[in-house]
Amino acid sequence: MKIQISSVILGVVVACLLLLGAFTFLWIDTGGSKPIFRDQVLPSGKVIKIKSFNLVWGIEHEDRRTNDDQFALEYVSSDANTDSMETIEVFELIRPVSELWGFNKATVSVFPTIHRKGKYYIYVFVRNVTGKWTFSRHESKVFIND
What we know:
By secondary structure, the chain is an alpha+beta fold. It has a single domain (38-142), classed as Diaminopimelate Epimerase, Chain A, domain 1 (Roll), CATH 3.10.310. It has two helices and eight strands, in the order αβββββαβββ. The protein has helices spanning 5-27, 84-100, and strands spanning 38-41, 47-56, 59-60, 63-64, 70-76, 105-111, 118-127, 133-142. The strands form two sheets. The protein has a six-stranded mixed sheet, with helices on one face. Strands 3-4 form a two-stranded antiparallel ribbon. The relative contact order is 0.12.
């Protein structure tokens, strides 16, 4: 059986074009996608948008740390000048389930807009041995699309 070099080249070119087309289809934002969120009314009457709520495993560099398992919630603040009181109120949405699962940590991230970009705040809640929750807040930034 004789292989023709022109057929091999044609096959490689077609495969590259198909891969390029698939990459373009999967990775280029066409502008038609809308962010997914859920409106949530807090007990204070404020309306926030929940971006995500996840169970996060405590793993770092293939080292499994079950004490770091936690729930993480991301939301869009009802106010551009968000304060810690609103975030504490949002945390109360996940506190019961965190305690039910026996977790001692939870994370709440506060974004200024529905689009994940720019600066945002991360609140890390930690439960001490008496069961009281405390938090620390630090600023972070999404660099990929800014």
